[in-house]
């Protein structure tokens, strides 16, 4: 299972397979059942994760009790709630397992110790964060400038697996639309695909 992590780390390092295996020898891996809440909104995060298998949802509940989905994390994605810029350090989001999950679990309190022992890890982590932040910035810019239908087609292009892995009401929330609007968009998309096949 750690081969998934090693392949991911290769993107940010020139280390050999054997060197990467040594780095990951003592990395803790844990399994969580579907429905497990890894972090509650309002708690101070003390863990970070890397998804080896499964799907996590990042969401928040507003003052009216409505849930808003902000992201989904699947295989080969890192998960960290960044809150160091806030005074109370509490999370504005919750993290839950939408499927049975196998995750690499990092302890944020011992992060610096790990970097001191393995300086190459700090370099890799910085590169990973830069890539994640760049992707988040691009996705946000695209999101605010696109129509709901364009968002759906972008999702189908970039992350089509989510269509069958995620409840439709959560997917609709992620796209910033109502579930009934998502249903209409899916029907129109299916119809246009059929027309392309016919002609």
From TrEMBL:
Pfam families given in the database record: cNMP_binding (PF00027)
Record's keyword annotation contains Metal-binding: no
InterPro entries assigned: cNMP-bd_dom, cNMP-bd_dom_sf, RmlC-like_jellyroll
Domain of life: Bacteria
SMART domains per record: cNMP
Annotated CDD domains: CAP_ED (cd00038)
Span of domain Cyclic nucleotide-binding: 11-57
Keywords noted in UniProt: Activator
Protein name according to UniProt: Crp/Fnr family transcriptional regulator
């Amino acid at each position: 299972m750690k081969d998934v992590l090693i392949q991911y780390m290769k993107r940010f390092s020139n280390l050999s397979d054997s060197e990467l295996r040594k780095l990951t020898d003592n990395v803790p891996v844990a399994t969580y059942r579907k429905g497990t809440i890894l972090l509650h909104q309002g708690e101070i995060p003390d863990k970070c994760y890397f998804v080896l298998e499964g799907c996590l949802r990042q969401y928040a509940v507003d003052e009216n009790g409505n849930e808003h989905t902000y992201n989904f994390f699947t295989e080969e994605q890192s998960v960290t709630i960044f809150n160091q810029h806030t005074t109370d350090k509490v999370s504005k989001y919750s993290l839950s397992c939408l499927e049975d999950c196998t995750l690499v679990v990092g302890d944020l309190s011992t992060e610096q110790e790990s970097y001191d022992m393995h300086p190459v890890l700090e370099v890799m982590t910085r590169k990973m964060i830069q890539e994640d932040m760049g992707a988040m910035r691009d996705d946000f810019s695209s999101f605010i400038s696109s129509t709901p239908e364009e968002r759906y087609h972008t999702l189908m292009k970039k992350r089509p697996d989510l269509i069958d892995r995620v409840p439709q009401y959560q997917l609709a929330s992620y796209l910033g639309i109502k579930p009934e609007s998502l249903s209409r968009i899916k029907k129109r998309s299916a119809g246009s695909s059929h027309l392309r096949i016919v002609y």
